[in-house]
Every structure is written in C-alpha cells, then in structure tokens.
Amino acid sequence: MLLVFWIFTKFADLVTYSLFGLEAGSRLGESVHFFFYDTTKIIFLLSIMIFFISIIRSYFPPEKTKKLLSNYRKITGHIMASLLGVVTPFCSCSSVPIFIGFVESGIPLGITFSFLITSPIVNEVALVMLYTIFGWKIGTLYLASGILVGIVGGIVIEALGMEKQVEEYVYQISAGESEVEELEWNDRIDFAKAEVKEIVSRVWKYVIIGIGIGAAIHGYAPAELLAEYAGPNNPLSVIAAVIVGIPLYSNAVGTIPIVEALMGKGVALGTALSFMMATTALSLPAMIILRKVIKPKLITVFVTVVGVSIIGVGYMFNFVM
Amino acid sequence: MKITIYGPGCKNCVNLADNAKKALTETGVEAEIVKVEDMKEIATAGIMSTPAIGIDGEVKIKGRVATVEEIKELIS
C-alpha cells in the first residue's frame, strides 16, 4: 500500500510542479498537488474496496435480511436491523420497495427505521475510506456511532407509535415471494466487478467536487478563523454543522476529502463527522422518495430524531477525542 | 413472450431495458418489453432491490443490471 501511495505522490509532483510549473510550497501549488494526489489515491482505493465489499454484500440480499429480521423483536430487533443495515446492498432508489417489503411482512416500523437510518450513514465504502484516511480509531468510532444512531432513532420512532403515519396502501399490499437466486463463486465476482463499475461511475463526480473543495480549503481557508468558530471550543459548532449538512446532498465519499481538509485546519472531529453524517443520512432527495410511503409528520419526526442523534454523536466525538 | 423491467426509472433501469432490447435484436426473439415504474406494483411482485427483470410475469434477476448474455439465456 505504501508503494502505491508513493506512486500517487510522484504522479502529483510530476503534474503539479513539472507539467504545470507551479512552485512547491506556494498556495496554488499545494492545492493543485493535494487535488491530484487525493483524486488518484481515492479512486484507486475505492475500486479495490468496492470489489471486496461487494463480495461480502452478495451474501446479504434484502430478502434474506427481511427473513432474518422477522425473527427478532424489541431491542434485539433494532440492534440486528442496524447491523444488517451496514451490510445489505442498498441504494436510495430501493428504499421504498425495502420499506414496503419490511412493513408488509410484519417487521415493526421502528425496526424498519433502524435499518433505513443506518444503511446510508454506514456506507461501507465511506467507512473503508475513513479507516485509510483517518485511521482505525476514528473509523471504528464512526461505525459504532452510525449503528447507535440507527438503534436509538428506531427505538424512538417505535415508542412514538407512528403506524398511522404510514400511507394506508402500504398495509394493503401483499408482496409476493420471489426467489433469491443461488449464486456461484463466479457470479459473486461478476457482481462485484459490476458494482465497482456502477459505483465508481456514479460517485466519481462527487469525489472530484469534494476533493476540489477540499483542495481549495487546504490551500486557502484561514486556519485560525475555522479553528475559532468550528474548533472544539465552540459548543454550537456541531449543531450548526448538522443544520448546514441536512439540505446538502452528497455521497459520503465526496464529503470525506472536505472533512479531511477542514480537520487539517483545526475543525473539531465531532463537528466534521456530524456534518458528514447529516449530508448522507438526511437529504432532500431521500425524503422525497420516502414521502411516497410515509406522511409528512413521520418525515419530520424522522429528520428530528436522526438530526438530534447525530448532534449527540458529534458532541460525543468532540468529548472523546 | 413478455419481458418486464421493474424499477422506478433510475439510470440502472434504463440500462437494463437497453440490454433487454439488445438481447431481443441479437436473438431475433419476438417479445414485448413492459416497464413497471410504480412502487406498489414493484413491491407486490416481491422485489426489494431494483432494477429487476421478469419473463412472462416471473421475476428472474433482481438487484442488478442483468447482462445481454444473461437475458439471452432467459429468453431462449
């Protein structure tokens, strides 16, 4: 791995200093170097990681998750749902069929939400990037807190008894059983290859935009100012970060480089990570999709519960680190 | 024969429909391609991950874009 990083550094050196003729140590030079180094490194790591993770994912289709989850109730159910949210392949365009499938098969609403909340936050791809960029300690903290947000959020929604806030038609559907295909080893490899192609072609723009903004912050953002307003000493920074993050829609993958650059400028870890959780877990497009199955009141509850949990996590991070 | 493409109209569903069309032209099989975009209908068919493809009402491959080769096998 170290050799690979060395190659990317050399490549960025070559492009920035030889090809563009920028001066090493200058602001523009630093920004451009950071951009090329990070883009190549992240796209490379991303492809490798998606491949291996997709192999694992191929063992957990949503149908299997549904069957597993119908065996659990109460707290165990929330924990299982949140954990399965980590490994079940999921994209926001599937959230409606998954929601209907779960609710229709009798899985309690709160447990369904535990799954739906954790799934986008602990995007395993983002997780692997967190591990590589920030190390195992932060990666593990993020994983644990993402799962925790799902468990707590689901329990609160269950306790509020929101069943009436689900569109009536959801309960009237009786979903057919459809066969889960038996996969051979080469099917899993083909699936993983297709996933790499599909995910990389979908997220690369977010990565580049994210790194571009990260690079600009890296070279130009005033460190003293950010440290003062978003550093660990400003207690309101976490709340502000979450409120700013909610309407923004980005892939976790694109947010990480921004978070990395912000932290380099003294923004507190908890503040940066709550911002990232808010952009991934709560977004306008996801809410518009969910509106097809749940009523506005439940959407409001969902946003509030998840938002508050994320703020809690942010404070916890700022406190622990 | 009827080929059904299930999906809410995302990019993958379009790709899947294209693959189905290609499979039909390449094999010369006559079939009608129907798109199901309604979430209720998708869920009723027991599909939890889109896109999915069904032949004569039976869901065959779901959660990924079936390749032209796979569709050829399904329709032959």
UniProtKB/TrEMBL annotation, chain A:
Membrane topology: Multi-pass membrane protein
Subcellular location: Cell membrane
TM ranges: 42-60, 81-103, 141-161, 203-223, 235-254, 266-286, 298-317
Pfam families: ArsP_1
The organism of origin for this protein: Halanaerobium saccharolyticum
Keywords noted in UniProt: Cell membrane, Membrane, Transmembrane, Transmembrane helix
Presence of the UniProt keyword Membrane in the record: yes
Domain of life according to the entry: Bacteria
Keyword Cell membrane: yes
Family to which this protein belongs: Belongs to the UPF0718 family.
Gene Ontology terms: cellular component: plasma membrane
Protein known as: Transporter
From TrEMBL, chain B:
Cross-referenced Pfam families: Thioredoxin_3
Catalytic-site annotation from UniProt: C10, C13
Keywords tagged on the record: Disulfide bond, Redox-active center
Domain Thioredoxin-like fold: 1-75
Disulphide bond pairs: C10-C13
Highest taxon of the lineage: Bacteria
InterPro entries in the record: Thioredoxin-like_fold, Thioredoxin-like_sf, THIRX-like_proc
Database matches in PANTHER family: THIOREDOXIN (PTHR36450:SF1)
Protein name per Swiss-Prot or TrEMBL: Small redox-active disulfide protein 2
Native source organism of the sequence: Halanaerobium saccharolyticum
